Amino acid sequence: MPTYSYRCTECDNAFDIKQSFSDATLTECPVCGGALRKVFSPVGVTFNGGGFYRTDSRATPKAEGSSSSASASSSDAKSSASTPAKTESKPSTPKPAAS
């Protein structure tokens, strides 16, 4: 069961109480009978497990034979077949004679 914090608007009485989600919100101060307000405070959050960090959301490499890797390899084969391979030939330079 969650714990809720309340504070009286008239006498400044503050207290915590465990209530179920289905319980009605308290509206009357038990000390003076004044109006109560819920006090909200930051909640400490701990992220455990995968999926919380930038590196967890990156795509993992697909296994061999998957449709995306097969299509990628076939598109690579098509592009290399349609474009002739370029070969670089450097002019040979004569080596100086040793004296």
Question: Could you characterize the architecture of this molecule?
Answer:
The protein is α+β, with helices and mostly antiparallel strands and 99 residues long. Helices cover 16% and strands 15% of the residues. It is built from one helix and three strands, in the order E-E-E-H. The protein has one helix spanning 67-82, and strands spanning 3-8, 14-18, 36-39. A three-stranded antiparallel sheet has the order 2-1-3, with no helix packed on it. The longest helix has 16 residues, at 67-82. The mean pLDDT is 75.
Descriptive keywords:
99 residues; rod-shaped; 15% strand; alpha+beta; three-stranded antiparallel β-sheet; 1 helix
Question: How is this fold's topology laid out?
Answer:
Layout: E1 3-8, E2 14-18, E3 36-39, H1 67-82
Helix content: 10-25%
Estimate the strand proportion: 15-25%
Please report the distance between the alpha carbons of the first and last residues.
96 Å
Q: State the secondary-structure class.
A: alpha+beta
Order of helices and strands: EEEH
> How many beta strands in the DSSP annotation?
3
Overall form? rod-shaped
Mean residue pLDDT: 75
**Rg of Cα set:** 36 Å
Given the structure, what is the number of helices? 1
> Are there runs of 5+ residues with pLDDT below 50, and where?
none
- Give me the side-by-side strand order of the main sheet: 2-1-3
